[in-house]
Amino acid sequence: MKHIEINGVLTVDQLIQQFQGAGSFGAGRLARACTVYEKMLRDKECTVFLALSGAVIPAGLRSIVINLIRSKLVDVIVSTGASIVHDAIEAINGHHYKGSWIADDDELFRYHIFRIYDVFVPEEDYVRLDYKFSEMYCRIAEEKKGESLSSNEFAWELGKRLKNSNSILRAAYEEEVPIFIPALRDSEFGYVHLLHSSQRNSKDSLKVDAFKDVSTICNIFKKSPKNGMIVIGGGVPRNTVQSAAIASSKGIDYAIVITMDRPEAGGLSGSTLKESVSWGKVKSEADKTMVIGDALVIFPIIVASVIERLGKGFTRKAHLKNAKMKV
Amino acid sequence: MKHIEINGVLTVDQLIQQFQGAGSFGAGRLARACTVYEKMLRDKECTVFLALSGAVIPAGLRSIVINLIRSKLVDVIVSTGASIVHDAIEAINGHHYKGSWIADDDELFRYHIFRIYDVFVPEEDYVRLDYKFSEMYCRIAEEKKGESLSSNEFAWELGKRLKNSNSILRAAYEEEVPIFIPALRDSEFGYVHLLHSSQRNSKDSLKVDAFKDVSTICNIFKKSPKNGMIVIGGGVPRNTVQSAAIASSKGIDYAIVITMDRPEAGGLSGSTLKESVSWGKVKSEADKTMVIGDALVIFPIIVASVIERLGKGFTRKAHLKNAKMKV
Amino acid sequence: MKHIEINGVLTVDQLIQQFQGAGSFGAGRLARACTVYEKMLRDKECTVFLALSGAVIPAGLRSIVINLIRSKLVDVIVSTGASIVHDAIEAINGHHYKGSWIADDDELFRYHIFRIYDVFVPEEDYVRLDYKFSEMYCRIAEEKKGESLSSNEFAWELGKRLKNSNSILRAAYEEEVPIFIPALRDSEFGYVHLLHSSQRNSKDSLKVDAFKDVSTICNIFKKSPKNGMIVIGGGVPRNTVQSAAIASSKGIDYAIVITMDRPEAGGLSGSTLKESVSWGKVKSEADKTMVIGDALVIFPIIVASVIERLGKGFTRKAHLKNAKMKV
Amino acid sequence: MKHIEINGVLTVDQLIQQFQGAGSFGAGRLARACTVYEKMLRDKECTVFLALSGAVIPAGLRSIVINLIRSKLVDVIVSTGASIVHDAIEAINGHHYKGSWIADDDELFRYHIFRIYDVFVPEEDYVRLDYKFSEMYCRIAEEKKGESLSSNEFAWELGKRLKNSNSILRAAYEEEVPIFIPALRDSEFGYVHLLHSSQRNSKDSLKVDAFKDVSTICNIFKKSPKNGMIVIGGGVPRNTVQSAAIASSKGIDYAIVITMDRPEAGGLSGSTLKESVSWGKVKSEADKTMVIGDALVIFPIIVASVIERLGKGFTRKAHLKNAKMKV
After folding, report:
1. In the beta sheet, which residues pair with residue D113?
2. Least CA distance to B264: which residue of chain D?
3. Contact A43, A15 (CB under 8 A)
4. Is B59 on the interface with C (CB under 8 A)?
């Protein structure tokens, strides 16, 4: 074991190399995560799934995710509804503000400011979203004429209609990166639907099918020779990716989980990747690691380290291009 | 502050009374949680929502939830798909077994045994579920003739077809307790649908609408003079209940959250109930508390303490009866 | 696996029996902890060490610990200085008050009220302690005439001089239960010594030897056929007990650890009992378990359950009587 | 709020600047910690205390701490015994090895290999320490002729006798950085004393006074116009620094705590810095932050960021030089 040495200015990856030399505790896990992500990207057969939960998008990861999509460093996104809602809020010029966790929540309530730990969002940004998006729902419904969408088709329909190219929804649409939102209704997108369907008779309202995206994500797994997973948080997005692995009889080949959750209480979010092996969700021989920490700190470090390793010349083909539209 | 005294045999509630006297740390929070649940139940205007996440159902809480439904001590359930899947597995004579968290997961994989921390489930129980339920899906689809169900209608359709009265699905159906499953596809129910729809042309397959349950849960909130929430874990079920509170402009009046998650990483599961006040999800003056602990320990203690307080004579009217079928 | 059933009033141990039937997650660990403590007490060859850290004494566990000493259900205490300081504060009529964790700490500072999460202690109680105890130090110093005490001798000297029989220090002195305080100076006892030694020339001031208690605790381990450990929290008290096990070449036979700490960050407090086996601190075949939870909730449950199991007739001989005075 | 941008190779501090722009969750706290440490170092009136607990020294932080001492970027160290023991083991050519947390601890026990999560230490390195250091104790005892040492004098006596300049003990001795070890006996240093005193009559054995370092650390606080604290972990080292602040009536001016502990269970290690304000341990207006994370990841990032900010030209005077020897 080599102790970490800091004797002057270090790039992020130089620090990670020091962590790898030590190889212990969280530093060892973090260094390993960088290696696993690098391997996923250099493996030409691997499709990279990014599972997003928690409130990291409004808190600072939005641009990183957009860049990963644009640079083709992720192939598929599986997300909570809320993460995409927060992207959408900024896409239509809403904002998230630096706040404080020691806040008078009664006062915030009176001033119509919503708190996400130390991030503030004005209610009016949600209201603008409601109106703009309920209109968008109408236009999609008209175009689809009663056809039910899957959650990923829904996401692209939104992306198609957003003009702001600096958004996850738009970038994913343009780069043909599927966004699965398995619990779509559990977010402002659900309330927008309520608003939308109150304005028209229910027959004409936008339809999203609860099950339709299952076969799509399973087909991606099946067609892809190898599959890699990066989980931020856990919850439904982690479970959806892992379940697609079983359902398509393809264990995951590379896996990174970044979480603060612990295994002892039994929930999936904190479950170890070793446990996932018993199910066949993750292969026994997979390159895998779990980093215990705040994803808003850990994930940018991994991305910065890997981008440094790949260098400017590196390019990666859009993995699902051609293939994916027909899945 | 009075120190906890244990001088002989204590009932669960007698111990909780000691915790209340001390009033500190987790003991204070747990004692308060018992009081909040008791108040919810004695308040004749209050509808009680139970939000279920994590793996507590296969690990031991299944009977407690069934009893709460049968005794009319919960009015609405909001659950992950997996929790209901585990109920269904036992309803058709599958089993969960005591295992160990120090297990050879490669070996478990070879023997087709799935591990949930220290609970084991044989794969064959899932396989039986797949076949029995895909058949059930067919029968529901035939009956519904193309109509799309909401997640709660879907849950009752399953309950109606299960014979085993000792199950959450059946009990909820019989007692007319709605079960919302906002991320329905993120569970074996999603895979079952894949199987089911592979057997018939997609036009005839069972349809569940992703948004249809939104108005139903919002209407329950609106019609109910007061609303109480008990959260086990967090995730989508907690968010769904809290979002319904906003969407119906009714802040929650009583709230208990049992979780191991922490607020600092920003995710909803660990967010404080004080933070929820800024959104209007929970009323500022609500009776509320968050218990940091393993729900498999904490929730049975709360239930035992409250049942002891209520006594044998206590009865509670099924809160949504008559009202709910039309929501 | 049997699901937990609650069908009426349950005693604490009846609930624990239900947890044992389920055997999963935290409920399984808690049930096991009760069994391990029961075994320790029924095993006539076992010396029971209680390691105390955190702020559980001021928060509500003080009476329980006093009762355990009086009932001879613990044989040795290893504690932080602070836990014993809080006992001493109450022994001279100071108080701890129910407070709130949402407090204005600037205001508390101005009003000379110290906050321990949601417990308040007035500064004046510390001041009274300072004066009373610095006097006591003088009297002990005079009696000892330059002899250096060990931390456990120091604790008994205090206990001898306290009149309040309702205190840990007094009870331990009367029942001849050694109290080891390995980091004695790291508490108000350190400041009291500063005050005391400022009043007299340093030659005459009370001397405590930093190492003198090492051989004493090791001798207890050596002489005792079997050794059991109950850890609340972790830190120095857990390490001291475990180190004594190695130093005396006697692995621990029964072990319970109650903590919120996790193993991944590498610290001893969160380290697993399995890890302790590699060192020889805990025997491989030891009856052992780690309960992840708030000790103010978990420990009283264990004590209540075990007292119920033992019944009224149970008596246990003071284990170290005769032996210990000469160690 | 500005989202984190990663568009190419970033130095560690460039990434931290991005975190500062976002300012949320752990990223905001980490960025703030870098600023607070930078301020401590640029403030010519500030004495910097580093409180060390957990197993970070054997796991990889040893060289960083040595460099901080050599570069005069810390002025005082307060440590657990174990951290210094691990430094000493390497100083006499012992080693820590990369291991695995999934290890067969029975086998490790048979092969005399001690496990610290995923770090392995051979027992023989401890045995060598025992013999070398018990000899050293003899020589110190002979030189001191019955005089009792304080823990910090003891640490320097060891440093004086170690030849390996690449060690914390030696560097601290040479740079006149005091090392306080408040729970000295709670480590292999305690067992070494047992060995040492078994070889000679107790009158001639090395004496360390349990209280003697209290006035020394308090005097440093008093003489220093300002005081800054960096805590790794918590436990006795954090408490010792904070208690010295009260005892010397000087609240801490700058504070960083890196921990995985949470406040809700009431222990000091997880207590907020806001709580510390109520005691007067930390000033209300202090620059302060708590970073929730694995110190082996977080602390090197802070150090790398601050070293980058300070630049090559930066020098800092040994703060306690002249002053400290007489304290």
Report:
1. D122
2. D25
3. no
4. yes
